[in-house]
Design goal:
The structure is a single chain. The protein is α+β, with helices and mostly antiparallel strands. The chain has a domain of 93 residues: Beta-grasp domain (Ubiquitin-like (UB roll)). 28% of the residues lie in helices and 18% in strands. The chain contains four helices and five strands. It has a five-stranded mixed sheet with strand order 2-1-5-3-4. Strand 1 and strand 2 form a beta hairpin.
Length: 137
């Protein structure tokens, strides 16, 4: 019967940690609406705590990302305005010192916690999604 107590304690501990994580997410603005201002002319409303890459993708703004947001290609660079946060270790291999000084980050590694301003190349705002079909002969 004592061997049943340990799993119960572990489950209780995991439930408490899950509750704390949910409260922390709410405290960080996870459920409030935020706005991503792009190039001072486009505003994207956003709710949640996802990455900039995913938030833009939901709005059909496609930032190049060969790795799909896994921080292994370094293609999804955006310049953050008014953001002085240091690079994450996953970004350091892809961001030069000059880019770092300009506020460049990987969009797949940057979470949307609050309103933010970013700069993207203008062409990305008009990029279209293409779908292909597999034809068999």
């Amino acid at each position: 019967m004592d061997w049943l107590i340990l799993p119960g304690i572990l489950v209780g501990f995991l439930l408490i940690i899950s509750g704390v994580l949910i409260l922390v997410e709410k405290a960080m603005g996870g459920d409030k609406e935020k706005t991503i201002h792009i190039n001072d002319d486009t505003d994207i409303p956003f709710q949640g705590n996802d990455t900039v890459l995913n938030a833009l993708s939901e709005e059909k703004i496609f930032v190049p990302s060969a790795c799909g947001g896994k921080a292994t290609c370094g293609f999804c660079k955006v310049r953050l305005i008014d953001d002085i946060s240091p690079l994450k270790p996953t970004e350091e291999a892809f961001i030069s010192k000059e880019e770092e000084k300009e506020g460049v980050h990987l969009s797949c590694q940057t979470k949307v916690y609050d309103n933010m301003k970013i700069v993207l190349p203008k062409g990305l705002l008009s990029a279209k999604e293409f779908k292909s079909r597999n034809y068999r002969s």
